[in-house]
Each structure stands twice: as C-alpha cells, then as structure tokens.
Amino acid sequence: MTRSVLSVALTLLLLSPLTTFSQSAADPSLLAEINQIKAIDNHAHPLRYVGEGEKPDDEFDALPLDVIESFSPPLRILPTNPEFIGAWKALYGYNYEDMTNQHVQELLELKKRVLGAQGRNFPVWVLDRLNIETMFANRIAMGSGLSVPRFRWVSFVDALLFPLSNETAKQSNRDYAGLYPKEEQLLRRYLAELNLKTFPPTLDQYLAKVVTPTLERQKQNGVVALKFEAAYLRLLDFGKPESTTAKRVYSRYLLRGEPSASDYKSLQDYLFHYIAQEAGRLGLAIHIHVLDGGGGNYRASGSNPLLLESTFNDPTLRKTNFVIVHGGYPFTRQTASMFGKPNVYADFSAQTFLLYPRALSEVLRDWLESYPDRVLFGTDAFSFGPAIDWPELAWLSNTSGRQALALALTGMMNDGEITRERALELARMVLRENAIRLYNLPNK
Fold first, then answer.
1. Gyration radius from the chain CA atoms
2. For residues 272 and 442, what is the distance between their CA atoms, to the nearest angstrom?
3. Strand residues in 148-190 grouped as ranges (E)
4. Do the beta carbons of residue 230 and residue 269 sit within 8 Å?
5. What is the spatial distance between Cα 413 and Cα 405, in angstroms, rounded to a whole number?
6. What three-state secondary structure class fits 44?
7. Is the torsion defined by CA of 143, 147, 151, 154 positive or negative?
8. pLDDT of 164-220, one tens digit each?
9. CB atoms within 10 A of CB 297
10. Cis omega (within 30 of 0) on the bond before 17?
11. Rounded (5°) CA angle 354-129-376
12. What are the angstrom distances between the C-alpha of 443 and each of 36, 64, 408, 428?
C-alpha cells in the first residue's frame, strides 16, 4: 500500500461512524454486580415535592422546551413506549402488561398514594429504588425534598451572558423567540436577589456587582457546578475574549439600541470566559449542554464539542473543570478527542434514553478504551407529565446505562483487553468514583 493510499484509508477510518462490533449480551453476574453499585447521577432535572394544593414546580429548568414550537420527541421517550411499563412495575407495583387508559388511571392513583405516604421524602424514595446515591439537580432553585447529600444543586448561568437587548436574536430563530425571554426573566431574578433594580453602567461594575456576587451566592447556597445551556441560544463557538470590545459594546448598548450579532458575540464570549475563570477560583465545575437538542430549529452543528476546543486549550482556564453534558451526542468521537485535555470530562446522560443499550455500549467502549477516568454516569431525568414523570425517565436511563456499561465491559473482557477485576473497577469509576474525585464528594 502506498503512503498516499494509506493516508486516505486512515482519514476515512477517523471520519467514519463507530464501527465497533458491539457485545450482544452482558455477562449476567457482571451486570448483577454493576446493578449493586451506588451511582452518582451527574445530570438530572428532578422535581421538588409538591403537596396538595401547592403551586406546581416550575423551576426544574431555565429553558423548558414547552415555550418553543411543538416537536416530536425521539422514539424511546414517547409516552407510548412500552419500556415505561417496567418503570411503573419497579417503582409502583403496576400489575399490567399494557398502557390502556383505564390501567394508566389506576397507575395515577397508585402514584398518588405513594406520594401521599412518602411526602417530602418522595424524591429520596425514588433514588433508593434506583440505587442512586446522589443526583445532581439542574434547577433554578432547589426545593422541598431535594436536600443534601442526596441531591446536589447545579445552577443555570446562561442568563448572565445576555444583559443587552436580545431582539435581534429573537428574530433570527423561531425557537430563540421563545427561549430568550426565559433568560431575561432569570437575569431579572438574579438582579433582584442582589437587591439591584438596574444594571450597573459599566462592564467592570456588572462583573463586580452582578456576575461574581451571583456565583458566590450560589456557591454559598450549595451549588457544585454551573450549567450552560447556551447551545439553545447560540453556537458554542466561544472565541478569545477581548476586553476593550466587550466594554465598548456593553456601555454603548446597555440602555439603548441593538448590538450587531458580532458585537454581542464579543461581549458574550468575554462573559463566558470570565464566568469560567470564576468557576475555577470558586472550585465549581462548568457543565455545558452539548447534544443534538430538542426543537425543530435547533442547530445541531452548533453543539459539536470541537467548537469548545479553544476554550479547553485556554491556559487561563486550566484551573476550571469542564463537563460535556450528554457527551456531545451524536459527536461522541469528537468528545473522546477532547479527553486529552487535563480538565475535560463527559457524561452520557440523555444517550441513556436516546439510544438502546447495545448502541450506547459502543459509545462507552470507545471512551473506556481511551480515558476511563473522564467518563461520568447521568440520567437526564425530567418530567413529561403525571404518567411519565422524572422517576420513570430516571428508571429508564438508569436501567439502560447500567446495561450498556455491562455490555461494553463484557466485550472488553471477552476480547482480552481487561480482566473481570478491572471491569468492576471501571464500572465503579464510571458510576461513582470519577464524580467523587471531580467534585470532592465524600466517599461512603
């Protein structure tokens, strides 16, 4: 084979989809042991306990997708997915093999009785049934039943990136028109929590009086990581910050006018870098949503992990740990190429319900064969309503994630890559020990 032909062949191999031959069945005893490991869930949206007559929980996400145009969810999270029958059985003792209206109504009564019996303990009761020791709750604020140590708070900080008029962005994308007002509302809330009625007149004062105090206040209230959902609002191509331009744009457009897209991007890039630096100073990880997200107008190309490479390579941010939430799916090999950075991790949340276990096992095997110490477990549990609520999605993700991990490790064992002892060590790393080390959690 000539050098040029070999070069072309290697290039095609690197650009091709995953070609790993997936394991068809997991070793039963290995899966049984994996199911006994108490997991740490790196990413979820649990609901607080809501008593009879109380206001429904509306703080489980800064960008709830019900504010954008309706779209068809992926197959496995459709309410008609029969896999959820398994969740109902495991959690509530559901006695049927179908999802008829009559039987679902009986289920809702069952759930109501369990919720009444458990009260504020209900969220912890769910974790106990899933063998999840700690769940990271991505929420605007915590609430009843979501207490430390079983639940840890991950706050949303995108709103801090958008202090100027967002009208131009709202007109550029139909989803943005629904999502930006939620960020504007959250930023007003952050100002109110600091007893501020207006924005400071200069960027330096905005940083000193709004951004840093908000992050410090959240850290004091128990936050362990700061979450960016920026891919729902712009591309993830955060550039090198330029302070002179950022300061000029902030001062010029704070009270009037519309910044150009390029000017506003310069300010956003500067603020993102500042928040990331502050996170390192405060000992907080940065979580970044990187996924082919929901909505008919979502730009999947803007969620490629490679867009964040300059951020990960920035020497001034090496004290900040970054987590690629959802593992950058479908760009999972690009995510693996980021693991060589000393401060980059990824969880496989959401892949746990977008993919079936066999397909997910291929992703996990690719990651585990290169940087097993950077891989984190997550469910992305959230609510679709009374019947398919966050516990059901947590059950599906938890079950699929453990099965996929067992499949990947079984294949590695069968191919002579690892011993059984090493397989269990890797399982413990993925399900809990990597997170314990990353977040300095107590190891029980």
1. 22
2. 30
3. 151-156
4. no
5. 12
6. strand
7. positive
8. 999 999 999 999 999 999 999 999 999 999 999 999 999 999 999 999 999 999 999
9. 15
10. no
11. 45
12. 16, 33, 25, 12
Distance from C-alpha of 271 to C-alpha of 269, rounded to nearest angstrom: 5
d(CA 224, CA 371): 23
pLDDT in tens, 49-102: 998 889 999 999 999 888 888 888 889 999 999 999 999 999 999 999 999 999
Distance, CA of 92 to CA of 47 (rounded, Å): 18
> What single letter denotes the amino acid at residue 40?
I
Q: Which residue carries 């004062």 as its tokens?
A: 205
Q: CA angle at residue 121 from 120 to 123, to 5 degrees?
A: 95
Token duo for residue 382:
């959230």
Alpha-carbon gap, residue 276 to 316, rounded angstroms: 10
| E strand or H helix at 342 | none
What tokens appear for 340 in the block? 């060589």
Residue 259 CB partners (closer than 8 Å, separation 6+): 164, 165, 168, 249, 252, 253, 267
Q: Are 12 and 112 in contact (CB under 8 A)?
A: no
What pTM did the predictor assign?
Answer: 0.93
